[in-house]
Design brief:
Blueprint lengths: L2 E4 L2 E3 L5 E4 L2 H6 L8 E12 L7 E10 L17 E3 L14 E3 L8 E2 L10 H8 L5 E3 L16 E4 L5 E2 L2 E2 L5 E2 L8 E3 L2 H17 L1 H14 L3 E2 L2 E9 L5 E9 L2 E13 L2 E4 L5 E7 L4 E4 L2 H5 L2 E5 L1
Helix pairs in contact: 3-4
């Protein structure tokens, strides 16, 4: 079992990047016959919502370009197109031959970060999408960072279960599939690790007893053995300070679910003020309104596991 890395980089609207042309596009479009790489640019367009009479929403198209072959003495110029010319690949679709169609992001095998099963959900990335600055993952067409800018966002596929996964590492630093393992102990994605640190910071603010109790809960979930077998706990974000978990054991080479539950934060509602300080509020059932939490209520904040 191994993880297969698919190199990808992140691109946002208004930026030309060099990407590989998928083989199927070479076969289905006259414009890309024999072309291995092409420059593309994501273009956001605010268009009417299909289910509304008055609202608009951002949609994304792709413009593409590459330098044309020039006759002797002809000045160099680039193509700038949003459409390509279809090629009939069988008798049934011969009516499509020479028809022009708008280029869509999946034509160039782009992955939309906002909703794709190969990319974990990210609230900030979702906001980008709805604000016209959505991110897409493209396959770099060269090793030149000037032609292929953007941060690395490679995706990984397990050769055993064939699922697209966020890789985890064992104690030796080897990348492993969290589904097939064998990873034991506490297993989570990077954004969950960020939330663990956020919970630890809140627990430390409340007091040393609160922080020690949270660490005891995390250590309990991190046990590497359960029911006399290798064990693993998958941890997921539930809300800003709470978590959902699944415990399972390795039986005859396969993971079997043991139990599931939550690592829940109890106490008043917690948010951050404009100055970065904690703001604690609670619902007063007697007065039927939200009010600032008392110090006693803040001191009550703690975490506990439930199954």
């Amino acid at each position: 079992m191994c993880l297969v890395r698919h190199p990808r980089k992140l691109v946002r609207p208004g930026q030309w990047v060099l990407t590989k042309v998928p083989e199927y596009l070479k076969k289905e479009a006259y414009d890309f016959s024999g072309v291995d790489t092409v420059y593309i640019c994501i273009v956001p367009m605010k268009e009417p919502e299909r289910e509304s009479e008055s609202r608009f929403e951002w949609r994304y198209r792709v413009y593409w370009r590459f330098p044309r072959e020039l006759a002797e003495g002809e000045k160099p110029y680039w193509t700038h197109n949003s459409q390509y010319q279809c090629r009939a690949t069988c008798e049934e679709d011969k009516y499509k031959d020479r028809i022009y169609t708008h280029a869509i992001y999946w034509d160039f095998d782009l992955i939309q970060c906002q909703h794709d099963h190969r990319v974990g959900f990210d609230a900030a990335e979702s906001d980008h999408y709805w604000n016209g600055t959505g991110g897409f993952l493209y396959t770099p067409g060269s090793d030149d960072p000037e032609e292929c800018p953007g941060e690395d966002r490679s995706i990984y596929q397990c050769s055993k279960c064939e699922k697209w996964v966020t890789p985890h590492s064992d104690d030796e630093g080897n990348l492993l599939c969290p589904v097939c393992g064998p990873v034991t102990g506490l297993v989570h994605e990077e954004n969950v690790g960020d939330q663990i640190e956020r919970a630890r910071a809140l627990a430390s603010f409340v007091g040393s007893d609160c922080r020690n109790h949270l660490e005891q809960c995390l250590n309990m979930l991190a046990y590497r053995e359960g029911w006399d077998r290798p064990a693993q706990t998958l941890l997921y974000n539930e809300d800003k300070f709470s978590f959902y978990f699944q415990m399972r054991s390795l039986v005859d080479g396969q993971w079997k679910r043991g139990m599931n539950g939550g690592l829940i934060c109890h106490g008043p509602h917690v948010s951050l003020g404009d100055d970065g300080a904690y703001v604690f509020t609670t619902w007063d059932y007697a007065e039927k309104r939200s009010r600032p939490a008392t110090q006693e209520e803040i001191n009550y904040i703690h975490w506990s596991t439930h199954t």
